[in-house]
Sequence to fold (222 residues):
Amino acid sequence: MKKKQKKKKIIKDTTPHYTLAEELINSISHGIGAGLAIAALVLMIVKSSTVAEVLCSITFGVTMIFLYTISCIYHALSSKLKGKRVLRVIDHCNVFLLVWGTYIPVAILGVKGIWGYALLAFVTTITIIGIILSCINLDKHQVSEVVCHLLNGWSITIAFKILLTNIGSMGVAFLLAGGILYSVGALLYGIGAKKKYMHCVFHFFCLAASICHFLCVYLYIL
Fold:
């Protein structure tokens, strides 16, 4: 009898590979983002006048800091390190957390009332689903991730009129500008691994989007 040979399962490395110059830009840009996020957190806490505002500011600020810090470290690591695969998953999960963290002050302090909590409940549910899918199989569920991001990002439109009344047209403008920048950035991310320096451009779109959302919260919600 022939002995059945056990086939070794080969795990394919699907981590995107960028040039050294690209990774330097990727890491430095989001390292700057982490620094700006820390400054933003301090400014928001100082301006907050109630416990609710402080808690909302901390949640938004910490999720920003976490995303940009992990992204900075992820891009600074060599692609040969196994730990980079783990950080890639965490990096993707952090995107969901940042969107959720951004919704905290917008829904609770901006939209307010039952509509605000209903919106936050919906976003929280989608965030949990997105994170679970990312952890199970990042590459297999890429399309599902995109759908979750679109649902999360643009669910705010159901409270557009309420926000317009509560935070004004400029506040809504900054909020929408951030959403548009993130959406365009997502498209750039899709072609980032195929076209040189496109992922770097995506990083700057993320920074610009976060700045817009910070200005919305700091100037018109707190």
